[in-house]
Amino acid sequence: MTDHDGGSPEISADSFDAARATRELLAVLAYAELTASFRLAEDASGAPTLADKAALGAMAVAEFGHFEKLSGRLNELGADLDAETGPFVKALDEWHAQTPPKDWLESLVKAYVGDGIAADFYREVAGGLDEPTRDLVMEVLADTGHADFAVEHVRAAIEAEPTVAGRLALWARRLVGEALAQAQRVAADHPALAMLVVGGQASGSGQQSGQSEGDLAEITRLFARLTDRHAERMKRLGLST
Amino acid sequence: MTDHDGGSPEISADSFDAARATRELLAVLAYAELTASFRLAEDASGAPTLADKAALGAMAVAEFGHFEKLSGRLNELGADLDAETGPFVKALDEWHAQTPPKDWLESLVKAYVGDGIAADFYREVAGGLDEPTRDLVMEVLADTGHADFAVEHVRAAIEAEPTVAGRLALWARRLVGEALAQAQRVAADHPALAMLVVGGQASGSGQQSGQSEGDLAEITRLFARLTDRHAERMKRLGLST
Fold first, then answer.
1. For A46-67, how does the pLDDT look when each residue is reduced to its tens digit (9 = 90+)?
2. For residue B189, with 0-12 CB atoms within 10 Å meaning exposed, 13-18 middle and 19 or more buried, which class applies?
3. pTM of the complete model
4. Fewest CB within a 10 Å sphere: which of A150, B37, B46, B133?
5. CB nearest to B57's CB, from A37, A45, A57
C-alpha cells in the first residue's frame, strides 16, 4: 500500500483495478489448489493404511477439481492461465520448499493448519469480488473433509504418544510464520490484490475504504479474526498455540 | 502351478478357484491404479509447465477414479479391500522403489512403457473373468491420454537432444526386466491368479486349459504378444528395443 496524502481517499473507483485483482485472486488460488492437490496425493502415497490412502487420494482429486473450476473461470474472463499464475508460482513453491513435513503427522498438521489459515484469508479477501466469482471462491474453499480427517488422526496420535503434541505445536507455529512471510511478499508484489484485503471488508455497498488509518484498523481486525480461527483449529487438534 | 500326474487335466472346474482369482485380479489392479495415480500426481508436480502439470494432474484423477471403480466392485463382491490388496502391496511398492525415475523424461517413459506392459498383461488375463468384471477391467485399463502425452514429449526431447535416446532405451530395458521379476514373484505367490494367465486364453467356452505342455505353449505365445506390443510402444517413442 503506497502512502498518499493524509485525508483524501487513497483508492478511488478508478485507481482500484477490480478486474485485475479478481484475476490475481483466481490465479493465486488456482495454483494453490493445484499444489495442494499434489501435496495431498503425496501424503496419500505415504499414508499408513489403504483406507487412509484412499481418503486422502479422494481429497486430492477434489482439490484438483477446484483447480479446474478456477482455471475455467480465468478462461471465461479471457485471461491466460500461465501468464496469470506465473507471478504466484515462486511464493507458493517456496512455501512448500520451506516447510517440508518430516512425517505423516506433520503433513496432516500442515494441510489442516496451513490450508486453513490460507482459506480463511482468501475468504476474507473474496468479500470484495463480484458475486459469481465470490461464490466460486467460497465453493472451492469449502472443506473437502480433510479437517476432520486431520483432527481425528492427530488426536489419536497424541493419545497414543502424548509427547508428540509439543513437537507438532512448534511445527504449527513455524508454519504460520512462514505463511505470513510469503503472504507479505505476495501482497507487496501485487498492489491490486492487496487492495482487496482492505477494500473487501467494506465492499458490501461497493464502497472502497481509503484512509490509511482505516486500512490499518481493518488489517488489524482481519489479523485478529485469522488468529482466532487459527487458535480454534489448534484447539481442535489438541495442540497449544 | 502345482505338478499333478501327467496326462489328466491339472485344473478342474473345482480346483480352479475362479472367484478367488477374480478378487485377486481386481485387488492387484486396484492397488496398481492407486499407486499409478500417486506417481502421476508426483510427475505432474515436477512437470516443467503449468499446462503439463494440469494435463498430468487430470490423468492422475482419472487413475484414481479407476481405483474407486475397482474397489467398489470388490465391495460388491463382499471382499475386504485391505485384506485383498495386502498381498500385492509389497510387489507394487517394490517395483516403484526399484525404478525411481531420475528426471521428468524417465518418469514419462516409465509410465508409458511400464503401465503399458502391465495393462497388456492384465487385459490378457481378464479374458478368463466373468463378463461384468472383464468389462470393468477393460474400462479401467483404457488409456487416459498418457500415451500420446508421453510420446509427444519424449519425441520432442529426442529431437532437441538426440543423445537422450540411448539413455532412455536403456532405462526402458531396465523397467521391463524389473516388471517381469515382480510379475513372476506375484504369480508364484498367487496360484489362482497365475491360473488365469493360462486359463484365460482358452476360456471363451469356460474351458480351463490343463496340460503342462499346453500351459507352456500358451505362456510362450502370451509373452510373444506382450513383447510385440512393447516393441510397438518403443518405436512410437523413437527408442530402440
1. 898 999 999 999 999 999 999 9
2. middle
3. 0.82
4. B46
5. A37
